[in-house]
Amino acid sequence: MLAETDVVIVGGGLAGLAAARRLHRAGVPWRLVEAEGRLGGRVATDVVDGHLIDRGFQVLNTAYPRLGTLLDTDQLNLGYFTSGVLVRKGDNLLRLVNPLREPTSGPGTALAGVGSLLDRLRFAALATGCATLPASRLLAAPETTTETALRRAGLSDAIIEELLRPFLSGVFIDRELSTSSHVLAMVLRSFARGRIGLPAEGMAALPRAIAAPLPADLLDLDTPVAEVTPGRVRTQAGDISCRAVVVAVDPPAASALLPALATVRMHSYTTYYHSAPEPPLTEPILLVDGDRRELVANSVVLSNAAATYAPAGRHLIATSVVGPTAPPEPTIRAELTRLYGRSTADWTHLTTVAIPDALPAAPPPQGRLRKPVALGEGLFVAGDHRDSPSIQGALTSGWRAAGAVLDELRAG
């Protein structure tokens, strides 16, 4: 027998760390086992030639409600993006910015040549409703797909195809926009209420900050789990007996450990990282393709938001593609020449990060975005596949799973 404790958490990603924080705060004995040699799960940062390379393009939204429970975002030293997008349409780059964040941009955004003025007014009304209405009311609304919801809001094919499909496909990793309208409502709510940024030390700073208050001797890294049964977790180092188990790994691994779980379809994503001596844009703003070529989801100069992402004299560009098939880097570079409207010949290709299981699919019905976390017999599950497919969803599910564990232990 390796050890004995009240609760074993399997997985050291955001969901597992959130669960550990709640159990630790409650004074319940726990232990976390993680197969990798680091914490963070899908949130990770590597260093390549002095550049901070996140495990795919990821950002942090300050409006995520669960963040405030776990850390002070000021400690992450966030660098922020402009609250808006640039849209490439033919020879033009059109700038659409949230006028609540940048009031002087209102006339330019209203007149930008993406869809019609009525389109932009209707989308503003949709986003305002998501930002101001109670979340419970948004989640009680009739549920459909994102695309259907946008069309029911009166938006034209032009604004959907030139702006919203390329933008939202990068958010949901879903070019078909088959994601639940309830997820769309929560995403628009967070974008309208919060700011989007990057930690100065890379996205890996987020799980590090969440884990910081936890005792290091309760975090077993490099410890793969072979089997989970009620009251026991079997690892390569031996068995751990316990009263409850929280499985907080990615959906494919969770289904392998808990066969009773339904299989979760995952979306694939690839991010190409380039270094340039000069930035193709000087603004920290997302660039999307309004020419309907449907190859690049988005591109952004990360070092414009957080200068620490690139060494002195260099600039880091991240370009993301949705889908399981990653085009060759020269194909992407040619697209970037067109999108930015300038030569990329002096850019250096640093690396390509392909993530086959990047984000859980969330088609309707998703209901109120809170799937059960208690499976019975002392088994619990956490992860963004139990809430919304996002950082917020992962943190919330871990917190909920720990709460369900505490309820069961107290009742027992």
From TrEMBL:
Domain Amine oxidase: 14-406
Transmembrane segments: none
One family name in Pfam for this protein: Amino_oxidase
InterPro entries the UniProt entry points to: Amino_oxidase, FAD/NAD-bd_sf
The protein, known as: Phytoene dehydrogenase-like protein
